[in-house]
Amino acid sequence: MTNADPQELEKFGELAHKWWDTEGDFKPLHRINPLRLDWIAQRAQLHGKTVLDVGCGGGILAEAMAQRGANVLGIDLSVKPLKVARLHAMESGVSGLDYREVAVEALAAERPASFDTVTCMEMLEHVPDPSSVVAACARLVKPGGMVFFSTLNRNAKAFLFAIVGAEHVLKLLPKGTHEYAKFIRPSELSGFARQAGLETLELVGMEYNPLTQRYWLSGDTSVNYMVACRRPQA
């Protein structure tokens, strides 16, 4: 059984042609990408390192990390976004970047302890079993390597901001992008990481002001948040 929701794959597949439209359905991803890229780069050396981007979609983060000098493999199970990612990389002339249609669990069995850094951003809330993804990421990173996750907290504020606000009122995202029941509390994600043998080093929130259309990092993890983990040295 593949740890993927066919409806989720189809949903993002149908939006694939809009992935690199910076003012379209994926505008929020383009806006937060510099923030998350810098946050990752400050905690894990990217230049010359091997990096895996799990659930890469159309390649926004994967391509940005390759531009920072990393050798990046982006993986996803949605075929159309991968085609878009490959095409955009070719048009951009970015080197050190490859994409594969493969489940993270399958890749973990094939290539354990192969990557200096693993990123899995905005993806855990779209799969049936997020703990399985976390465990696979832990197996894929080398001892001493970093693993980064981002997702959405599960509480009334997150429902109000991420679904009612972002999808219905502000229309920052297409309706149906997120399903509240799949949101993950930081304590739950830290538990998944601990079970997978990862140390949780840092938790940071990401906030948005709809008036100024500005995103920034903060200590408020009540809606969007990112987690930095490390696989201990053997």
TrEMBL record:
Pathway: Cofactor biosynthesis; ubiquinone biosynthesis
Domain of life: Bacteria
Biological processes per GO annotation: methylation
Keywords, comma-separated and alphabetical: Methyltransferase, S-adenosyl-L-methionine, Transferase, Ubiquinone biosynthesis
Coiled coil feature spans: none
Residues that, per the record, bind S-adenosyl-L-methionine: 36, 55, 76, 121
SUPFAM superfamilies noted in UniProt: S-adenosyl-L-methionine-dependent methyltransferases (SSF53335)
EC numbers, comma separated: 2.1.1.222, 2.1.1.64
Ranges where the Methyltransferase type domain occurs: 52-149
Entry annotated with the keyword Lyase: no
Entry annotated with the keyword ATP-binding: no
The protein's name in its UniProt record: Ubiquinone biosynthesis O-methyltransferase
Record's function text: O-methyltransferase that catalyzes the 2 O-methylation steps in the ubiquinone biosynthetic pathway.
GO molecular function: 2-polyprenyl-6-hydroxyphenol methylase activity; 3-demethylubiquinol 3-O-methyltransferase activity; polyprenyldihydroxybenzoate methyltransferase activity
Class in the EC hierarchy, top level: transferase
Family listed: Belongs to the methyltransferase superfamily. UbiG/COQ3 family.
InterPro entries xrefs: Methyltransf_11, SAM-dependent_MTases_sf, UbiG_MeTrfase
Reactions catalysed: a 3-demethylubiquinol + S-adenosyl-L-methionine = a ubiquinol + S-adenosyl-L-homocysteine + H(+); a 3-(all-trans-polyprenyl)benzene-1,2-diol + S-adenosyl-L-methionine = a 2-methoxy-6-(all-trans-polyprenyl)phenol + S-adenosyl-L-homocysteine + H(+)
